Amino acid sequence: MRLWTQDEFVSRRQGEWTALSDILTSGKPLHKLPAADISRFSALYRGACADLVHARDVGFTPDLVSYLDGLAGRAHNILYAAPPYRIAAAWDLVAREFPRALRRNGRFFALGMTLFFAPMVLCLVATLFFPEFAYQVLSREQLQGMADMYSEAHTGRDESTDAGMAGFYVHNNVGIAFRCFATGILLGFGSLFFLIYNGVVMGTVLGHVIAAGHGKNILTFVCTHGTFELTAIAIAGGAGLQMGYALVDTGGRTRLGSLRAAGRDLAIIILGAAIMLFIAAGLEAFWSPSAAPPPAKWALAGVFTILLTLYFALAGRSTTTARPGLRAGSQGIVATPTPGGRP
What is the number of structural domains in the chain? Predict the structure, then answer.
């Protein structure tokens, strides 16, 4: 069998080397390429490694061996290196992955919203029509304290108090959401309990304060940050129900395997809910108690509600067409040096 000369070898293999080099210099993360392109990249990398071994064995010029060595090394680093942490990854979570994960698991999202908001509305109405109902849920001292808290409209407070309250709100809100989610490990029953319980308590407090004549004050205070806070709590509870369901309906896997299969979506959903809670805490600390006029607070609450609804429904939906196949390329390997020489 006749061995190829170096010029023949370069002529036959140059197209694949250029295609591999094009991917390496494109600047696009490998994990974001279509599956077919990732497979093609792996094949090109293996081919470059085989060509490097052949070039060394046959004794081609050092320039060609060095080029192939560098090409294979760069491809190896891309293929096997751990992906770096980037701000773009956080933006991708917020802009695309979180709403996509919610839509993929829409039934648990809807169930969490129902189990939280339905008891809230029912207890609110029950307290308005039957004031004594509130005392079956909370003590008179607790209810009187809430009524006193909202007996006057909020007209602002000093910055140091706002900053301190921000930390309290983060701790409180995250604690509620964490209980709604983490107790889902009890086959979902913990999340079921905490969603209903928090809905009952919040609805009762709202109803009692409104019945006491301070409804405008409390509703104006909660309308803006509540858009994020209450929705995030329901989302966290829905994720807990999803975790519990994964332990019940394993799809033929072990319970641990079923939990792992649901793990990525659960992590994305909880991270997204946590971001919403931090936004809520900032609003609750600095905007809700401010001296801004009530119409401004209600207007902003309406804007946030519309934007959040559109975000859940539309964000992350793909509008691009499928990428075409990789172009092999027609230029030479490098400008200098030009591979050549005898076999």
Answer: 2
Residue 323 lies in a domain: no
pTM above 0.85, yes or no: no
Domain that holds residue 156: 87-314
> Model confidence over 134-190: pLDDT tens digits?
999 999 999 999 999 898 887 766 666 667 777 777 788 889 999 999 999 999 999
User: What 3 state SS string does the chain have?
Assistant: CCCCCHHHHHHHHHHHHHHHHHHHHCCCCHHHCCHHHHHHHHHHHHHHHHHHHHHHHHCCCHHHHHHHHHHHHHHHHHHHCCCCCCHHHHHHHHHHHHHHHHHHCHHHHHHHHHHHHHHHHHHHHHHHHCHHHHHHHCCHHHHHHHHHHCCCCCCCCCHHHHHHHHHHHHHHHHHHHHHHHHHHHCCCHHHHHHHHHHHHHHHHHHHHHHHHHHHHHHHHHHHHHHHHHHHHHHHHHHHHHHHHHHHHCCCCCCHHHHHHHHHHHHHHHHHHHHHHHHHHHHHHHHHCCCCCCHHHHHHHHHHHHHHHHHHHHHCCCCCCCCCCCCCCCCCCCCCCCCCCCCC
54 and 106 both lie in a single domain:
no
Domain annotation covers residue 332: no
pLDDT tens digit sequence for 16-31: 999 888 888 887 777 7
